[in-house]
């Protein structure tokens, strides 16, 4: 749900799930479709797994009730004026007993970004609200979900966005932005112990995202 560039879709496809990558951005979906094809051709996903892309609106998804065992809604609700309506759609398409992983920007790192840059939160299609975890969970609970575990992630990404907000969100050529981005790429490719330990320690404090797991009750219609 809101697959964007497809990072989560690729990983679950690689693990053997039947995947539907859903988004309203045609360009993103075309790139995701291409990657699905490449993964299949290279044998990066089990032959029994399927993957497809679907364009649509998160407020009116073109799927039947209870059609999905698992849904990932990653960094989408903070963009939507009618976030609770999208949560109701998420609830509708998930089967009873199904689990969804919902992620939004964490309160503290996001609040710093808003303080540093007006462009960050006023550009078209950008973030229009900041959730506390309690607020997010309250909205999901009011939708009908059972609230499960949560955790924070991507602490090393928070300073990167603070730098971008400080020097200009479009100023990707700034030396500080380029240097920090290179470090993040190095970290993702090499996963050295020092940064993995540092991020684990920092996640509860400045993790860029908060992830909440929710379940549609077994007896739900």
TrEMBL record:
One Pfam family per UniProt: Methyltransf_11
Q: Domain named Methyltransferase type: which ranges? A: 1-101
Gene Ontology molecular function: S-adenosylmethionine-dependent methyltransferase activity
Record's keyword terms, sorted? Methyltransferase, Transferase
Biological process according to GO: methylation
Against CDD domains, the record matches this protein to: AdoMet_MTases
Query: What is the protein named?
Result: Methyltransferase
Organism from which the protein derives? Nocardiopsis kunsanensis
């Amino acid at each position: 749900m809101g697959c964007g560039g497809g990072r989560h879709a690729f990983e679950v496809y690689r693990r053997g799930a039947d995947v539907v990558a859903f988004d309203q951005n045609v360009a993103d979906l075309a790139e995701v479709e291409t990657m699905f094809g490449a993964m299949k051709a290279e044998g990066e996903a089990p032959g029994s797994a399927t993957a497809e892309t679907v364009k649509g609106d998160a407020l009116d998804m073109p799927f039947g009730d209870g059609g999905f065992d698992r849904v990932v809604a990653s960094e989408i609700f903070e963009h939507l004026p009618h976030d609770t309506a999208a949560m109701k759609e998420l609830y509708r398409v998930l089967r009873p007993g199904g689990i969804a992983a919902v992620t939004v920007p964490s309160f503290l790192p996001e609040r710093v970004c808003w303080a540093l840059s007006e462009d960050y939160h006023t550009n078209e299609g950008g973030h229009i609200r900041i959730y506390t975890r309690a607020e997010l969970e309250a909205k999901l609970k009011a939708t009908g979900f059972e609230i499960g575990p949560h955790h924070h992630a991507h602490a090393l990404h928070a300073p990167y966005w603070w730098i971008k907000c400080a020097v200009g969100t479009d100023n990707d050529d700034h030396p500080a932005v380029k240097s920090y981005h290179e470090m993040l790429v190095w970290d993702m490719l090499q996963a050295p112990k020092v940064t993995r330990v540092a991020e684990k320690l920092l996640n509860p404090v400045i993790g860029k995202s908060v992830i909440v797991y929710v379940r549609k009750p077994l007896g739900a219609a």
